[in-house]
Amino acid sequence: APAEDDAPPEEEAPAQEEAPAEEPKEEEPAADYEAPKEEEAAPAEEEPKAEEAPKEEEAPKEEPKAEEAPKEEEEVKVEEAPKKKKKGKKKKKKKAASSGDCESEEMWNEISKKNGSEINWYILKLKGKVGNGEDLECIEKGSGGVKEMVTFFTDKPKGIYFGLLRVTTSDIMSVRAKFVYMKFLGTNVKTMTKAKLTGSLGKIEDKFPCKHLSVDINEKDCADDLKPEKLAKELLRVGGAHKPDKMSFGPDQEVDVTNMG
Length: 261
Known about the structure:
The protein is built from 13 helices and seven strands. The chain is an alpha+beta fold and 261 residues long.
């Protein structure tokens, strides 16, 4: 009978109840979590689409070609607007010349005529005080040549003048014109006045467009400095390769230069 009492140990059947421990294996949660992996694949496929967007953004590279505005700006620079302004200034100068403000230009146009001029010299002076401008006015002109100019200068010890003489040179083949520019300062002109004049001399000389020879004179030495023979030698010295046969400094003031060195 006691041996039968050992039946309780046979109650190990609960060990079979461990089957519930195997139930988690049947649930296979790993398979359920594989779905997120598939979801990750979807965004991977969408990535190429996102990469195509930058290709569409390449359009800005073509925009610089369409933006040719800089080329139009270059065309603006080529426009002749400044020339029109210059023309306007020239018109103003012509009006000024008619009112006597540019007599130097008028006198030059008259003495330099290709078909001959009625004058062969003229003398200008400053319109205002020395140092207040460079505008000139004509005070004397003539057709008597260098002799008339000497006559004018000899009694002007306080004068400041600027003159031009037309000299006609000729040979068997041609007749040409040369111009002698003269700056006259009287011996009694004050030192301060001469100093003020120095700053304006460049612009004044520009009003005489053609000068083959330039001389500085005063009332005491002008008769000697303006002798036709002396001027002829100086013109030959600066005249270049072409040597004329004769030079005329006015009526009855012709110099034969064939034997001059």
